[in-house]
């Protein structure tokens, strides 16, 4: 997620590798994957054992122009989870 210390899929994989745990892996949220500038080829090159979960999101397909806009869209996400868990918003 571009506004965090782990900005994209490659950084996430490096973090998992550095942790060096048998139960380590990555979760792919397709919108965050795209927003971080990652590419599908990166998933294909990743060992299957590290791919733990994939999630789809209902965010707009058009990429935000900056992190401020990205966060605003995230805060107004129409997902039922966001509507029922307002304190969990970033």
Sequence stretches where pLDDT stays below 50 over 5 or more residues: none
Query: What multimeric state do the chains show?
Result: single chain
Q: What is the 3D form? A: elongated
H/E element order: HEHHEHH
Distance between the termini: 11 Å
- Specify Rg, calculated over alpha carbons: 14 Å
Q: How would a crystallographer describe the biggest sheet?
A: 2 strands, parallel
Q: What structural class results from the helix and strand content?
A: alpha+beta
Helix content: 40-55%
Q: How many strand segments?
A: 2
Number of individual domains: 1
- Tally of individual helices: 5
| Mean pLDDT over all positions | 78
The spatial strand order of the largest sheet comes to 1-2
Strand content: 5-15%
Question: Nutshell version of this structure?
Answer:
The protein has 90 residues and is α+β, with helices and mostly antiparallel strands.
Structure write-up:
By secondary structure, the protein is of the alpha+beta class. The protein has helices at 9-19, 30-35, 40-44, 67-75, 80-84, and strands at residues 26-29, 51-55. 40% of the residues lie in helices and 10% in strands. A two-stranded parallel ribbon has the order 1-2. The chain is elongated. The termini are close together.
What's the layout of helices and strands?
Blueprint: H1 9-19, E1 26-29, H2 30-35, H3 40-44, E2 51-55, H4 67-75, H5 80-84
Parallel strand pairs: 1-2
